[in-house]
Amino acid sequence: MTDELVESDDGQTPVEQALAGGDPHRVGWFRFYFADEHWEWSPQVERIHGYEPGTAQPTTDLVLSHKHPEDYGQVAATLDEIRRTAGAFSTRHRIIDTNGEVHHVVVVGDQLFDDGDQVVGTHGFYVDVTPSTVKRRDEVFSAAVEMAEARGPIEQAKGMLMLIYRISADSAFELLRWRSQETNTKLRALAEQVVTDFLGLTYDDELPPRSTYDRLLLTAHCRVQP
Questions:
Q1: Angle made by CA atoms 76, 81, 82, in degrees to the nearest 5
Q2: Is the pLDDT of residue 207 over 90?
């Protein structure tokens, strides 16, 4: 059984424990169980959708009802693909909260296993990257290029994550910190591995699919040399 799913006394996985320490309005975890279409949201994800913590009862219909009309088809198709393949995924789309406010979110998920090592669902995190609270895309690109040119591996890894997921420097660092804490891997060593993995990809004119980067990010700690 993967170490990502060992639960604490309060029932949270290390993924959820790490995310709980982040900005309460920007990052949160979720779980989705295939068999009964059961969803679980952290208080942070409830807030992103406009609910007070403990008041939302998420269902597939509720989850989809919050998607921006222009992004609904994309998200519905991604959900169908997750059910079919039970694989890792990532998506960037818009949701509309209960107050009618639009949020831009990045959602990344991986397989959720039961005690018998059977895949029973998916779990992962939301990052609220709404343009009103983060850098505009051109600013993100410029900052990412500067970071990628810097000598520090953490800055290089942040720059790469900013470009791949189109998120701010703070959000990129939060993702690295989450993986470092969750896997008990030194932040610098993890960042170096992420840079090595991303630069080691081979491709022609187009970048590899984002799912390739998702898998490398979620398993980078396995390749860090002791």
A1: 95
A2: no
Neighbours of 160 (CB within 10 A): 22
Tell whether the torsion through CA atoms of 139, 210, 102 and 129 is positive or negative. negative
Secondary structure, 3-state, the chain: CCHHHCCCCCCCCHHHHHHHCCCCCCEEEEEEECCCCEEEECHHHHHHCCCCCCCCCCCHHHHHHCECCCCHHHHHHHHHHHHHHCCCEEEEEEEECCCCCEEEEEEEEEEEECCCCCEEEEEEEEEECCCCCCCCHHHHHHHHHHHHHCCCHHHHHHHHHHHHHCCCHHHHHHHHHHHHHHHCCCHHHHHHHHHHHHHCCCCCCCCCCHHHHHHHHHHHHHHCCC
pLDDT, residue 168, reads 78
- Cβ-contact 182, 4 below 8 angstroms: yes
Q: Roughly what angle, to the nearest 10 degrees, separates helices 137-149 and 153-165?
A: 150
- The pairing of beta strand 119-128 with beta strand 102-113: antiparallel
Residue 162: pLDDT band (50, 70, 90) is confident
Q: How far apart are CA 32 and CA 121, in angstroms?
A: 5
Q: Which residue has the tokens 């209960």?
A: 98
Quote the longest CA-to-CA distance of the chain. 49
